[in-house]
Task: inverse folding
């Protein structure tokens, strides 16, 4: 797959990242090389092969627990590291005018 | 002999017999850090006061009759991707500069419970993304064997700290080789347990289906002691398993006679440095001399592992790192007045180049129209890699190979070529994709005096088996390790 600067800028929007004008060219070139490399997977015949998302099936058993409430973080601890907080809530720039 | 030179097993014995106190052990390690850290740069935080307080508390508990466990009073370094209450946790990133987690990771709780003393947080590639520790936003760490070389990555700080005798053991995390590679580069032992063996609760996520926490130490026995303390089920990580934890020390010295050791043809082919190849091959002969049978095995899909890894890991990373929104914690760019603008500006300022590259590749691989061609394809290849191992383990008990295709390289040598850096993980990454355990154990030195690591790969939950093989090798090989070079004129 060939990617150009516009593709990179579009993905950057999706990823909530921005790149300076002089960064984009280098990045596009590196991105192209990475894509070309990962496309070597196309040489593998995967017809009928199921995908693996997780490797250890025994994990299924570990995933279940009782639906019971337990202690959690104290409210003030949960917001303590926020860059901005107002009255125990997370502060963000104005969303609606 | 200084206290900091003792292994965990030796220190444990001294603490048990009350000949050395936890405070003395801690002070000795802190003293060593003070004298060599300016050369090695292994730590992002040295927890001097906190560690001494913890050591005193351990001594008080011992005086009150608390039983001594393996790690009681042992100073340990912790990779800075593990949450530690009361100590900064930065992941080597500017985006988490000054972040103090409100809770301890499961493994930290376990270590504290056992009476271990956390002496500091070790440097790493930003969010564990890298193979040289040069991607840390704060500083590069240097290889104690040659300060002009990288320590490997991403747990380079942990491995270098252990190699430089700044602490007898440490924790790292391994997503594509990040414990085993730096262990090999620094001439120490490093282990990635089976996926699910150790709870990831409180490990800052990079690629959740591949990440696993692992121990680093100077001896195999010490590595087993740390693993014993951290392994086991935890309900807060739904991928942690209920498989019973073996006694990793009980069978450590059992003879290996009759074991079948597999040598994957693909791990000794083109791309492997000739000197490394010779050293690793002679290591396999040492094991053969102990009565093991060497057999050739095939892992035909290994050549596709790096490509599959970089799609799966980056896809998961793009999702995991979406949490850095400058709202709940982390760096915020205050100059932007809109919400979306704040996200973009903060993330762009806070993340380094490699993290951005991986988030971008992962976002692309998951985006509409490309998901099937990239992400799903990679997951199918992952199945084939797993099947390769399943087939191989029908014929052998463990698999042997190199840990890295090359010896430690110079700082700056590969940093401008991301793809070349990715290829360093060629022999380690397949284990993460398959979920298997592996251990890197020192097996020799190059002409230039740089360490080489033998990798021993086990079947699922066969940690005891690979520790046993590693231990037998370590005892038989008996290297003269010139480990104290840092005291010299370098």
Result:
């Amino acid at each position: 797959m060939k990617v150009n600067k516009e593709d990179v800028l579009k993905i950057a929007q999706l990823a909530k990242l921005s790149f300076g004008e002089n960064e984009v060219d280098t990045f596009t070139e590196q991105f192209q090389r990475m894509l070309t490399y990962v496309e070597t997977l196309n040489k593998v015949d995967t017809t009928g092969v199921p995908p693996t998302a997780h490797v250890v099936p025994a994990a299924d058993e570990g995933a279940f627990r009782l639906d019971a409430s337990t202690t959690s973080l104290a409210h003030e601890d949960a917001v303590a590291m926020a860059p901005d907080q107002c009255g125990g809530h997370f502060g963000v720039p104005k969303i609606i005018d | 002999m200084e206290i900091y030179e003792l292994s965990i097993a030796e220190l444990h014995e001294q603490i048990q017999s009350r000949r050395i106190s936890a405070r003395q052990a801690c002070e000795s390690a802190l003293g060593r850090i003070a004298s060599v850290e300016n050369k090695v740069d292994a730590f992002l935080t040295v927890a001097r006061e906190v560690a001494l307080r913890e050591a005193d508390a351990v001594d008080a508990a011992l005086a009150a009759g608390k039983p001594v466990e393996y790690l009681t009073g042992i100073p340990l370094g912790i990779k800075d991707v593990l949450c530690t209450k009361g100590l900064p946790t930065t992941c080597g990133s500017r985006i988490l500069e000054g972040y103090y987690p409100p809770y301890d990771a499961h493994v930290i709780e376990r270590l504290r419970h056992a009476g271990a003393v956390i002496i500091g947080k070790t440097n790493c590639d930003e969010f564990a993304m890298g193979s040289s520790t040069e991607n840390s936003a704060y500083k590069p760490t240097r290889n104690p064997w040659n300060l002009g070389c990288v320590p490997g990555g991403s747990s380079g700080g942990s491995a270098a700290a252990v190699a430089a005798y700044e602490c007898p053991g440490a924790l790292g995390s391994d997503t594509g080789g990040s414990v085993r590679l730096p262990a090999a580069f620094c001439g120490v032992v490093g282990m990635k347990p089976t996926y699910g063996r150790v709870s990831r609760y409180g490990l800052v996520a990079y690629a959740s289906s591949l990440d696993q926490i692992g121990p680093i130490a100077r001896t195999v026995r010490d590595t087993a002691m740390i693993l014993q303390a951290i392994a086991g089920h935890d309900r807060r990580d739904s991928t942690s398993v209920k498989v019973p934890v073996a006694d990793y020390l009980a069978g450590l010295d059992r003879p290996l006679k009759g074991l079948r050791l597999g040598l994957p043809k693909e791990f000794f082919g083109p791309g492997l440095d000739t000197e490394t190849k010779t050293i690793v091959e002679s290591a396999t002969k040492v094991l053969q001399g102990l009565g093991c049978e060497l057999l050739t095995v095939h892992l035909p899909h290994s050549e596709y592992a790096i490509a599959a890894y970089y799609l799966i890991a980056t896809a998961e990373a793009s999702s995991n790192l979406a949490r850095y929104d400058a709202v709940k914690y982390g760096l915020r760019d205050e100059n932007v007045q809109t919400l979306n603008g704040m996200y973009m500006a903060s993330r762009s300022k806070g993340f380094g180049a490699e993290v951005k590259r991986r988030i971008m590749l992962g976002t692309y691989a998951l985006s509409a129209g490309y998901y099937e061609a990239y992400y799903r394809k990679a997951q199918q290849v992952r199945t084939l890699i797993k099947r390769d191992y399943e087939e191989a383990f029908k014929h052998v008990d463990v698999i042997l190979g190199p840990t890295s295709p090359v010896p430690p390289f110079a700082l700056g040598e590969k940093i401008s070529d991301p793809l070349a850096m990715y290829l360093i993980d060629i022999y380690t990454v397949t284990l993460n994709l398959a979920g298997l355990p592996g251990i890197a154990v020192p097996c020799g030195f190059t002409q230039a005096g740089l360490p080489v690591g033998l990798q021993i790969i086990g079947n699922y939950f066969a940690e005891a088996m690979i520790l046993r093989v590693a231990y037998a090798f370590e005892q038989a090989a008996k290297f003269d390790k010139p480990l104290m070079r840092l005291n010299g004129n370098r």
Remarks:
- Chain B has a mean pLDDT of 95.
- Chain B has 15 helices and eleven strands.
